[in-house]
Amino acid sequence: MVEPSLVLYGAPYERAMAVLEETLRETGARYALFIDRKGFVLAHKEALWAPKPPPLDSLATLVAGNAAATQALAKLLGEARFQEVVHQGERMGLYVDEAGEHALLVLIFDESAPLGKVKLYGKRAASALAEITEEALANPPKLPLDTEYQEGAKALLDELLGN
Amino acid sequence: MSTINFANREINFKIVYYGPGLSGKTTNLKWIYGKIPEGRKGEMVSLATEDERTLFFDFLPLDLGEVKGFKTRFHLYTVPGQVFYNASRKLILRGVDGIVFVADSAPNRLRANAESMRNMRENLAEYGLKVEDVPVVLQVNKRDLPDALPVEMVRAVVDPEGRFPVFEAVATEGKGVFETLKEVSRLVLARVASGT
Ligand SMILES: Nc1nc2c(ncn2[C@@H]2O[C@H](COP(=O)(O)OP(=O)(O)OP(=O)(O)O)[C@@H](O)[C@H]2O)c(=O)[nH]1
Ligand SMILES: [Mg+2]
């Protein structure tokens, strides 16, 4: 299989969470997400004061799709990659940066967070997360996907989709 | 490959609905979205043109429930079937765990079915994958058309070796929709359990 399975757990996961937490504190952003390139959420953190976030699954999917399209555009222009992306509306903003080859950092912020800080600490966080990702990929855990799991999941499929 | 989040105890699988333009991929997802109860599904995201053709993808997350302490999720995607959207189509295939190929029974789409399958092989190859590496289910849709071709004729052009499980469907009425989804999910689960 070409695409490695990115699995975060234990110490690397705790470190990723610490990076997200610190980034929220330093930037004043509302939400920080660590997602893989396929659009799955690996870790996320919300500022204590922030309102309920939008659906994270949808968010991660759209960010990953967007990043994939941007990367394809860069390639077309003969660039290895484009820099981080910032989208800013009247109140809310979105910062997306590559955390290495397999993952992305997403920061969602409002007008109370200075953009300069978001970019500065966003960059730092992205490179810290890239390192954590490399480590996690080098030490894949044993997966709980045995036949017992398969049987259990099949039973739930029958329940959800009928026999 | 599936994505596993040990800390949140989640396992996610990615299933992609592939096939020629207008074959009914989005209709499959809409039907599923309409039938799955609240709490077992997330928001459906559709990136479409004004005339409802898929531009980038549709996305629907389904919550299977907890198995051995792990929340198990299926993320369903459709690709844009129109030929000129190939760049987007390729991107959606990244990290795919299972594929539903939605073929069209209309006589004037026979060739489009064949071309879409060839295109899928090419796009998988860009990720170093062969069709044989990924669980694929063939859905022959629009069986309600008065001039629908025989299933075997459609199958002959997309799967001449008869390798994939086949389901007949009328996606607009939900016929065959859950059956197809269930089969591809079972194949995906069987594959991860066998550790290949
Ligand atoms: N008669 C009939 N029409 C169908 C059936 N399934 C889908 N359709 C119709 O076919 C048209 C195209 O369906 P979509 O689901 O949008 O097709 P798609 O495969 O997503 O198309 P793209 O997004 O362009 O790739 C719509 O008008 C549907 O209502 C079916 O089983 N029978
Ligand atoms: Mg569509």
TrEMBL record, chain A:
Lineage: superkingdom: Bacteria
Domain Roadblock/LAMTOR2 per the UniProt entry, residue ranges: 16-109
Entries under Pfam families matching the protein: Robl_LC7
InterPro entries: LAMTOR2-like, Roadblock/LAMTOR2_dom
Annotated TM spans: none
Protein name per its UniProtKB record: Roadblock/LC7 domain-containing protein
Organism: Thermus composti
Automatic annotation (TrEMBL), chain B:
Keywords, ordered alphabetically: GTP-binding, Nucleotide-binding
Keyword DNA damage attributed: no
Pfam families referenced in this protein's UniProt entry, alphabetically: Arf
Highest taxon in the source lineage: Bacteria
Annotated CDD domains: Ras_like_GTPase
Protein name as it appears in the record: ATP/GTP-binding protein
Lineage: Bacteria, Thermotogati, Deinococcota, Deinococci, Thermales
